From TrEMBL:
Cofactors, names only: Mg(2+)
CDD domains the record matches: PheRS_alpha_core
Keyword terms, alphabetized: Aminoacyl-tRNA synthetase, ATP-binding, Cytoplasm, Ligase, Magnesium, Metal-binding, Nucleotide-binding, Protein biosynthesis
Species assigned in the record: Lutibacter flavus
Enzyme Commission number, as recorded: 6.1.1.20
Protein name: Phenylalanine--tRNA ligase alpha subunit
Length: 334
């Protein structure tokens, strides 16, 4: 009992203290060994109690040694020695931003300079926000343009096929003037190939105010392509979207200076980069905005496509493979 008390009270200040303690109690010639030898001579009636006390003592002594060893080793490492101060530091591995993030941030930056806010919405959408409010009522043939992933068997709940759904939500919650872009992930049930994927990213934009005209749209697109690509020649080709009227496809003139230019523009010099148009009056009505007072334009682009053009990435699948040899190439870009 006395010894148990001694062990409990033991306090080591140096490594030598622990070693002395260890030799006294736990070494071959230590007290514990002596006591275990003595165990033989203990009267059978007292054996149980003696044995238990002995074990308690042994464990307590061992615990003390471990405790102080750990503590003293850590403190010498922390405070005791500074080591070799001239040793070169460990290199800090810097990660890199994903090219999708880089391009999304660039697009946000370009549009925020002309007053656009950024809005976001859910990736799991209902039919109203993804289709119906956008002038795509049930059974409208244009729904087939967007191969939709439905959630389970409920046709009302789906993975959004574009971020136009965010703009519907924005119109429901804000009064014009509205100037917002919505970046985000979208989903389409498409075969995966070098040019298309079932998951990709979009930035869509919406501008609603009094007297917004097609000329405003065109000027904004020109500003965007200049800032983004350094190209100042665009053309608008008539197209169709249910939510805009008139609608157009935007091409930029990429030029025909290199062999790659020939390849990616199929020899024409022109490259399609987004869809756009004047917001259909029905879409405004669906969001309780009076089309007799307000007009607006909208546009939408795929971030992957823009990134592929900017960085000459030949295959869309590279964005999702997380191959560090690919990702590391974007280290210098912020
Ligand atoms: N929502 C369209 C798409 O995903 C893009 C678009 C947006 C077209 C706005 C016109 C106007 O393809």
């Amino acid at each position: 009992k006395e010894l148990i008390g001694e062990v409990a009270a033991f306090n080591a200040k140096t490594k030598e203290d622990i070693e002395t303690f260890r030799i006294k109690f736990l070494s071959k010639k230590g007290l514990l060994n002596d006591l275990f030898t003595e165990f033989k001579n203990v009267a059978p009636a007292e054996r149980k109690e003696f044995g238990q006390a002995l074990n308690t003592l042994k464990n307590a002594a061992q615990d003390k040694v471990n405790l102080f060893k750990d503590a003293l080793e850590n403190t010498t490492e922390q405070k005791g020695s500074y080591g070799d101060l001239t040793r070169p530091s460990e290199p800090i591995e810097l990660g890199s931003r994903h090219p999708i993030s880089i391009v999304r941030n660039k697009i946000i930056d370009v549009f925020s300079r002309i007053g656009f806010t950024v809005s976001e919405g859910p990736e799991i959408e209902d039919d109203w926000h993804n289709f119906t409010a956008l002038n795509l009522p049930a059974y409208h043939p244009a729904r087939d343009m967007q191969d939709t992933f439905f959630i389970e068997t409920n046709p009302d709940i789906l993975l959004r096929t574009h971020t136009s759904s965010v703009q519907v939500r924005y119109m429901e919650n804000h009064k014009p003037p509205i100037r917002t872009i919505s970046p985000g992930r979208v989903f389409r049930n498409e075969d995966i190939s070098a040019r298309s994927h079932c998951i990709f990213h979009q930035v869509e934009g919406l501008y609603i105010d009094t007297d917004v005209s097609f000329a405003d749209l065109k000027q904004t697109l020109l500003y965007f392509t200049k800032e983004m690509f350094g190209k100042s020649k665009i053309r608008l080709r008539p197209s169709y979207f249910p939510f805009t009227e008139p609608s157009a496809e935007v091409d930029i003139y990429w030029g025909l200076e290199t062999e790659t230019d020939y390849k990616i523009t199929k020899g024409t010099g022109w490259l399609e980069i987004m869809g756009c148009g004047m917001v259909d009056p029905n879409v405004l009505k669906n969001a309780s905005i009076d089309p007799d007072v307000y007009t607006g334009y909208a546009f939408g682009m795929g971030i992957e496509r823009i990134a592929m053009l900017l960085y000459q990435i030949p295959d869309i699948r590279m964005f999702y493979e997380n191959d560090v040899r690919f990702l590391e190439q974007f280290k210098s870009v912020i």
